[in-house]
Amino acid sequence: MTVRPGWMRRLAGSGRVELIPQGRMSGPMPWVIAIMVAMTAIALAAGLALGNAVSAARAEIEGGVTVQIIEPRPEVRAEQAALAIRAIETMPGVAGIRQVPQAELDALIEPWLGTGVTGAAAGMPGIPVPSLIDVRLEGAVTPAKLAQIAQRVEQVAPSARVDAQSNWLKPVFEAMLSLQVLAMVVVALLAVALAAAVLLAARSALGTNRNTIEIVHLLGGTDAQVARVFQRSIGYDAAGGGAVGLALALVVVLALGRRFEGLGAGLVDYGALLWSDWLWLAAVPVLATLLAMLTARLTVLHVLRKML
Amino acid sequence: MTADGEIIHFDNVGLRYGTDREVLSDLTFTLHAGRFYFLTGASGAGKTSLLRLLYLAQRPSRGGIRMFGTDVITLPRAELPVMRRRVGVVFQDFRLVDHLSAYDNVALPLRVAGHSEQDLAGPVRDILEWVGLADRMDAPPATLSGGEQQRVAIARAVIARPAMLVADEPTGNVDTDMAAKLIRLFDMLNRQGTTVVVATHDLDLLRKVPDSLIMRLDKGRLSDPTGALRYPPRKLT
Ligand SMILES: Nc1ncnc2c1ncn2[C@@H]1O[C@H](COP(=O)(O)OP(=O)(O)OP(=O)(O)O)[C@@H](O)[C@H]1O
Ligand SMILES: [Mg+2]
């Protein structure tokens, strides 16, 4: 039961005439909309983050070639690595090249074999670990380019292995792509369910407001006036529910983002949402509200047209 | 409105709901501007149905209706709202908007017509004061007694100074004193030029407006549109 206090009435003055007070949360529908908006936004965020991870990683890896110098004697290994770098550096189409430093290699191996296994630290003959050379090409890696590099490297380092990075990350990509497709399907399904919820909300609001609609109609309200009153009232409900839903989704997305950041794992870093992604998320409640208002309008006009 | 002061003209009007029998049949009569009409008849005789035709909630199944000189049967739907605003209605079941205060309910016709809040505040207060609800302006209808709701409904019907006032049993829920007072309000409006049509089966009420004309509905037929049943009897001129 809402009775507008005097000050609100005065605010409503000066030309803009409010027929009936707005912004009543009527029944469970705003909450249903809130939950649907939250779930849609979360699924959308997941889909977008996966998409970003896939495309960022792809851009990085597509042009990436890894050269491994597999040679047990450390001196020979270092020498061959230096020669290989020099050989590749001068090739056309190479954007960058870098030898992965020993410290980084240690860090990569540490989780599996513990510290000092490569021998450098303990001054003991440790497990030989290949030298890694990270080559960045200007375009994507093609078999021809890969063969060219392999040929060059072979001349100076016969024991070297040359791989395109995309080759061994392919299964990861594929897994991520299917996850992304799944996320988008879920988004689509949720969007349909959200639209249905909004439709039901508009219908149920029509039921509870039918009396008001009839009265305003009989007091000489035009169809447009009645529809506006009604569509505004639904709009407020949907916007309220949508805002709550979006807030809920943001809390979840930001908390999840934190968790993944904490992992510090390579690929996940790319999954951060771009500013345009945040706009998409914000668009979910906006679209839901517009849909609610449009449905409300069409429903009311339909009902009114059946009256004289 | 035509030259002879005709405000409403029914020409052989019939009304049926759905495929049922006709609840109104062969209605031919003319209402004149500035007159006070009582519409009487037993329960179920069709009083409400006839009034619904007058306030344009319903189209007749057959026949012609002219209001304010305009044929409302052929009038485009978009032009009906303006027509409705010239008719003030007290519904038999009040039809107040239950989530609006008494004040906002009474203000509704003025808001629909596009009046500004400054313009309507004074008149709305005045009329609520007149019907004795000055201290209940902010009350929602559910917290008002039946008689108080009825007075809000009447205030809402007259607030926009309609050319014609149509009231369906407007004194059904109030005591004799309040009924007399409300009828005085109608009479006063009538003297200022408003045509009044009041449906009632309270025959005492008829006596309170000496110049009134009486129409009697009997099973959907107008048995005496000439005013012979008036109290005291007098011929319609
Ligand atoms: N919407 C409707 N659908 C079908 N029949 C209706 C409808 N409204 C009224 N009727 C029928 O039309 C007839 C006249 O009803 P109406 O309400 O006009 O009578 P009334 O004279 O106003 O009665 P009362 O004094 O009890 O208010 C009744 O037989 C009623 O059952
Ligand atoms: Mg009736």
Automatic annotation (TrEMBL), chain B:
One of its GO terms (biological process) is cell division. Coiled coil: none annotated. It is found in: Cell inner membrane; Cell membrane. Residues 8-237 form the ABC transporter domain. Homodimer. Forms a membrane-associated complex with FtsX. Part of the ABC transporter FtsEX involved in cellular division. Important for assembly or stability of the septal ring. This is Cell division ATP-binding protein FtsE. It comes from Novosphingobium panipatense.
